[in-house]
Specification:
One of its GO terms (cellular component) is plasma membrane. One of its GO terms (biological process) is monoatomic ion transport. Pfam families: MatE (PF01554). The N terminus is likely disordered. Helix 2 runs parallel beside helix 5 and helix 9 runs parallel beside helix 15. The two termini are 30 Å apart. The chain has one domain. The chain has a two-stranded antiparallel sheet with strand order 1-2. With 451 residues, it is an all-alpha fold.
């Protein structure tokens, strides 16, 4: 790849200008993109919910393994984007090319491997969850296999989005994602109801949209670089990407494996409980939709300013992101606690599923602010190239969910699982902030001052 300069170079310098305005300019396109994703998931869940709780449970079961793919993909997405942001901050064009190229090849390899695993072992993966409903199992397997067939494309869609963000140019991602999501919203009812394909129809609509997003991403990426793997692929760069990416990736993989273990526990309470968790997560994503934007903004902003050795801007960017995220999440917390039944009823009409979902939202609601603190702080960890902190905190405190759930279900039944999630989320937020404030920041100051 050859890094393009002049008119074709779309890099935005994040080391200058008003910090609040820069953070908002970075976060806004990410937030809007996430809102579009939320809108799609919202509409998609309504369409699928019309098929019944069983259909929702099917997608919920298979989505766990698709989420595992995103966790594997994080190795490249995080490691590569951090190194690209640092190189941009130093204005080192050669390094930018080197890290993008090397990330590209690693991403392709991981996508092929993971997609193959899904296609070969899909039946065993669904069977492991122990869902005692043959129809749900069958639908979950077909949904998983259809999506697994294009997993490498999904890997690249995420990769391109983060690379665009490293350049400080999130508007391109917004345009691409917007078109893809609108297409998905249009195709869903056509394939689900008009063609009468049910859950499979939802999967096919998603695959088509992902392909379109991939084609657009490749097209727009030409404004940033051209392909030249022989010149810029670098083994040392590969090791650096993996060094930074593996902790975050392992964090997410373990997080997903914990979710699989929790799903197995939840399955004991029937398909209604599985559907309730899927709907609850869908509603809860309105938190992560916005906070994810601040996470990405913090990572890119801190990354470039760390490369430029701008201590003042690093700290200001983190604090502003944290304040904005906390204010937003407060309103979400109030909604989850005050009107959970109304939110659940949007997606499904089954009374039992609505009740379980409402309980989920009330319990999870109390942890939303601290969960947001953890996400934004993880963005700062990423920008500083210190992903090991977020990995250690997340892994150690997420692991306790399983034993805690096993204890609490004896007293609160399925609500015990929700309490285990809420308690661990609050602990992660407290610990992440404390580590950044009292440990990592002091190391960063010393490193920059004496470098």
């Amino acid at each position: 790849m050859k890094y393009m300069v002049g008119q074709k170079m779309k890099k935005i310098d994040l080391t200058k200008g008003n910090v609040l305005k820069v953070i908002l300019s970075l976060a806004t396109p990410l937030v809007v993109t996430s809102l579009l994703q939320f809108a799609y998931n919202f509409v998609n869940m309504i369409w699928v919910g019309g098929l019944g709780s069983g259909a929702v449970a099917s997608i919920g079961a298979s989505s766990i393994y698709i989420g595992l793919g995103y966790s594997v993909n994080a190795m490249v997405v995080i490691g590569g984007s951090v190194k690209v942001a640092h190189a941009l901050g130093k204005k080192d064009e050669e390094e930018v090319n080197k890290y993008i190229n090397t990330s590209f090849i690693l991403n392709f390899t991981l996508g092929i491997i993971f997609g193959s695993i899904i296609l070969i072992y899909g039946k065993s993966l669904i069977g492991f969850l122990g869902i005692n409903d043959l129809k749900v199992n069958k639908s979950a397997l077909s949904y998983l296999l259809i999506n697994g067939s294009t997993m490498v494309i999904v890997f690249f869609n995420t990769f391109y989005t983060r690379i665009f963000s490293s350049f400080g140019n999130n508007k391109i991602s917004l345009k691409i994602s917007g078109i893809g999501l609108i297409l998905n919203i249009i195709l869903d009812p056509i394939f689900i109801y008009t063609f009468k394909l049910g859950v499979n129809g939802a999967a096919i609509a998603t695959v088509i949209s992902n392909i379109v997003v991939f084609i657009m991403s490749v097209y727009f990426s030409k404004d940033f670089y051209t392909v030249n793997f022989k010149k810029y692929f670098d083994i040392i760069a590969l090791k650096e990407i993996m060094r930074l990416g593996i902790p975050n990736s392992m964090q997410r993989i373990i997080f997903t494996l914990i979710n699989i273990a929790l799903a197995k526990i939840i399955s004991k309470f029937g398909a209604d409980a599985i559907a309730a968790q899927k709907i609850g997560l869908q509603i809860e994503s309105i938190t992560f939709t916005i906070i994810g934007g601040f996470n990405g903004a913090a990572a890119s902003f801190v990354g470039q300013n760390f490369g430029a050795k701008r201590l003042d801007r690093i700290n200001s960017g983190y604090k502003i992101s944290l304040i904005l995220g906390t204010i937003y999440t407060l309103f979400i917390t109030i909604a989850f606690i005050a009107i959970p039944e109304r939110l659940a009823a949007i997606f499904v009409r089954d009374i039992i599923t609505i009740k379980i979902t409402a309980d989920y939202l009330r319990i999870i609601g109390i942890s939303q602010i601290l969960a947001a603190v953890e996400m934004i702080t993880n963005g700062a960890f990423t920008g500083l190239g210190s992903t090991k902190y977020s990995a250690i905190i997340s892994v150690s405190l997420t692991v306790i969910r399983v034993p805690l759930a096993l204890v609490l279900i004896d007293y609160f039944e399925v609500n015990g699982v929700w309490w285990s999630i809420a308690i661990s989320s609050m602990l992660k937020g407290i610990v992440a902030f404390s580590v950044y404030r009292f440990i990592l920041w002091k190391k960063v100051v010393r490193r920059i001052k004496y470098s």
